[in-house]
Amino acid sequence: MYVCSCFGVTEKQVKEHAEAGACTPRQIASASKAGTDCGSCVRHIQALLGRGNCPRRELLDRGAPALTAEVSEVPDLSEAA
Ligand code: FES
């Protein structure tokens, strides 16, 4: 079923983007353009995202940083200058 008829984005695609880390309608828009034309689908996208659909949101709810990356090796930048 289409969520965003302006860009032909389906409910399944929105859920896939959410599983890939998009937690907000803005992040869904960045990934798929959904919600960036008439905007009538934004509430539906927000409802689909809801609580519990976003692993990063669960991290935030627990007070953990959600946008971190593990860096195993820090490059030596002293030679770059
Ligand atoms: S239906 Fe999504 S931007 Fe128009």
Automatic annotation (TrEMBL):
Gene3D superfamilies: BFD-like [2Fe-2S]-binding domain. It comes from the Bacteria. Keywords: 2Fe-2S, Electron transport, Iron, Iron-sulfur, Metal-binding, Transport. GO terms for molecular function: 2 iron, 2 sulfur cluster binding; metal ion binding. Residues 2-50 form the BFD-like [2Fe-2S]-binding domain. Pfam families: Fer2_BFD. The keyword Transferase does not apply. Belongs to the Bfd family. This is Bacterioferritin-associated ferredoxin. It comes from Streptomyces filamentosus. The lineage of its organism: Bacteria, Bacillati, Actinomycetota, Actinomycetes, Kitasatosporales.
